[in-house]
Amino acid sequence: VYDMALIRLATRRNIPMFGICRGEQLINVAFGGTLYQDIPTQHPDTTVCHQQQEPSSIPTHTVHLTPGSAMASITGQTQLFTNTHHHQAVKQVAPGFSVTGWSSDSIPEAIESSHEYPIWGVQFHPEALATAGDSISARFFYFLVQKAATYRHAKEIHRRILSLDTHTDTPLD
């Protein structure tokens, strides 16, 4: 419940969001999308093991990224070798969002807002890969920090400089 409230609050304030694993799933549901509740039973023809036995720092499967998407721009790649630890995943992407990354069995692995909202999500764990030294996964966090700094700067400008007079009857002498 609190997670959904935070997503709505961040959206109203246009705060950049990057959802990882369940975070991506929550973003999708908060905006009206649906989930596979259990990939093995709801997508039995899957050819990818989405619950790897190896540690999170070891990539085990490929995610294909849409060329020109924010995800491809962030990483500079159209394919990522990632980790995977989930049995749930985006099924119907939420209105206003696009699937911009998927595994070879067509399970969505990355989504991003199609609107002006600064919202992205991935099903895998780039934090584990970045901590293990993967510079491509680290780019997600550099990007998020850059977006957060831009947000903070814009908020500061509005706080210090911008003021609006909404009184249309105020004389302009």
TrEMBL record:
Family annotation (Gene3D superfamilies): 3.40.50.880
GO MF terms, alphabetically ordered: gamma-glutamyl-gamma-aminobutyrate hydrolase activity; transferase activity
Key words, A-Z: Glutamine amidotransferase, Transferase
UniProt keyword DNA repair, yes or no: no
One Pfam assignment: Peptidase_C26
GO cellular component, one term: cytosol
Gene Ontology terms: biological process: polyamine catabolic process
Protein name: Glutamine amidotransferase, class II/dipeptidase
Organism the protein comes from: human gut metagenome
Top-level taxonomy: unclassified sequences, metagenomes, organismal metagenomes
